[in-house]
Amino acid sequence: MDDDRRDAMNDTPDQANDQPGGPTTSGESETPETVAYSPPPSPRPEWPRASWSANETWGTGAAATPTEPSSPVLEPGQAMPGQAMPGREPRARAPLGPLLAASLLSAVLASGGTIVALQASGALDRPTLPPATQRLPSSSSVPVAIDESSAVIEAAATVSPAVVQITARGASTGVFGGTIPQQGVGSGVIYDGSGWILTNRHVVETERNTIADELEVELKDGRTFRGTVYGVDTLTDLAIVRIQADSLPAAPIGNSADIRVGQLAIAIGSPLGTYSNSVTSGIISATGRTIIVEGDVRLSNLIQTDAAINPGNSGGPLLDAAGRVIGINTAIAQGSSGIGFAIPIDIARPIMVQALNGQPLERPYIGIRFRSINYQLQQDESLSVDHGALIGPATTATGEVLPAITPSSPAEAAGLRDGDIIVRIESQMIDTEHPLDAVLTSYAPGQTVRMEVLRGGTHIEVRVTLGVRPADLTP
Fold first, then answer.
1. Which of 16, 127, 382, 464 lies at a CB distance of 3.0 to 4.6 Å from 414, suitable for a disulfide?
2. Are residues 202 and 6 in contact, defined by beta-carbon separation less than 8 angstroms?
């Protein structure tokens, strides 16, 4: 059997690939010692004192400061400012312009000497900064990177012991008769310590609807157990495996309804069946995806992620930043790079509980075919609402037309019709975020639910008693 038979063969046109990236950093290994230099003191020039009055500051005409005397105190033989001493030649006043020039020249020479000295010492040599995209992150961005890295590390440490490798062995019928040995490897996650494991249906099958003859379950610590298939899901690509062991590490289970596009996503599994307990990370790229996989099987309401998922990762957990399981990895888009899909854990939760209670794995069933209404479908069909589930016939890949209402089904018994729009189940509105099939998984077979139905422009209430989904129905 192929290691992983769930490469998506066709995906919806609006799928996206986000490649996070991160900055690179560079730095110097040694910081040069800083040396302080100062130029030798320059003689301060003696500025000529122009004539001034007793009540004015020199050269300004402003009132004298308190430190200036109101009148000069003259020593014997000393003349007033601006007057020559008797018997002496008047002192020549130095022109102001040349003196200013001399002072500026002195300052320039002094600073030039400082620069020369600093250059000679190497104190001015600084490493060239790398481009902006390669600089160290600012202090405000460092905690974000550290937190994300810590989340991945802690999630891997917590959940990895609960992730197992499953080897399925069996035989399939050859094209020309006879049997062909088959072996495939996938992953699974322990959700209860008494040996309950959630995985993909295709991991435990050697071919469609054929359960493997033998399952070997290997734990991270190297222990191996013989596994048995408790049951397979009739709605999605899920299965429950049991091993006889106690006190096993179990992964914490989260809520896929709480996830947001762009949040951290962590995948753990055994890619290629060789690299067990490999951890990859990325983001939640989208929710509510629908794809067609091998065998013309339609899988809906999937989580899209760019965390690396490879053959062998199938059945392994998809985690949030807190290390809680929010999905089960199930498929990759064929020919893509970084487009993987996981089944939301909220869809898996009912069958997990059924297994723990010793009940058969059963899904609710009403027996209709429908299309989820969005803006485009509203425009194409001229509908009066932009949400809900439009009941109508479906066409298979081979061209066979299937009726909108399955004969002898709960929907027929309740009086649902082709063209009805289911807009609400109990208090939950049906829309793109809460599609009909996903909402129904929260109810058990045998329950009676109230449906608000739009029929010919009139809102009516229909009560439907849910049946058990037949095992031979294609998801």
1. 464
2. yes
Q: Is residue 322 part of a domain?
A: yes
Burial class (CB in 10 A: 0-12, 13-18, 19+), 403: middle
238 and 169 in a common domain = yes
Q: How far is CA 356 from CA 204, 359, 370, in A?
A: 19, 8, 32
Band the pLDDT of 106: cuts 50, 70, 90: low
Contact present, 217 and 197 (Cβ < 8 Å): yes
326 phi and psi angles, rounded to 5 deg = -115, -5
pLDDT at residue 281, rounded to an integer:
94
Contact of 182 with 171, CB cutoff 8 Å: yes
Contact between residue 338 and residue 17 where contact means Cβ atoms under 8 Å apart: yes
Q: What is the pTM of this model?
A: 0.67
As to burial, measured by CB atoms within 10 angstroms (0-12 exposed, 13-18 middle, 19+ buried), residue 175 is exposed
Mean pLDDT of 247-276: 91
Of 317, 314, 369, 321, which is closest to residue 344 (Cα–Cα)? 317
Question: For 296-346, what is each residue's pLDDT tens digit?
Answer: 778 889 999 999 988 889 999 999 999 999 999 999 887 777 799 999 999
Q: What pairs with residue 31 in β-bridges?
A: none
Lowest mean pLDDT among 136-140, 244-248, 272-276, 464-468: 136-140
Cα–Cα distance measured from residue 228 to residue 349, given in angstroms and rounded to the nearest whole number:
20
- Cβ 430 vs Cβ 439: under 8 Å: yes
> Is residue 348 within a helix (H) or strand (E), and if so which, with residue range?
helix 345-356
pLDDT band at 191 (very low <50, low <70, confident <90, very high): very high
Output the CA–CA distances (angstroms, integers) from residue 287 to 11, 199, 261, 405, in the order listed. Answer: 13, 20, 7, 28
Residues 347 and 375 in one domain: no
- What is the set of active-site residues? 202, 237, 314
Judge whether 458 lies within some domain. Answer: yes
Average pLDDT value for residue range 277-298: 87
The arithmetic mean of pLDDT across residues 114-131, rounded, is: 49
Among 85-94, 402-411, 454-463, the least confident range? 85-94
- Would 83 be classed as within a structural domain? no
Q: Are strands 7-8 and 325-333 parallel, antiparallel or unpaired?
A: parallel
Distance (Å, whole) CA 343 – CA 309 = 13
Rounded to 10 degrees, the C-alpha dihedral 226/228/233/236 comes to 20
Which residues form the domain of 374?
A: 364-468
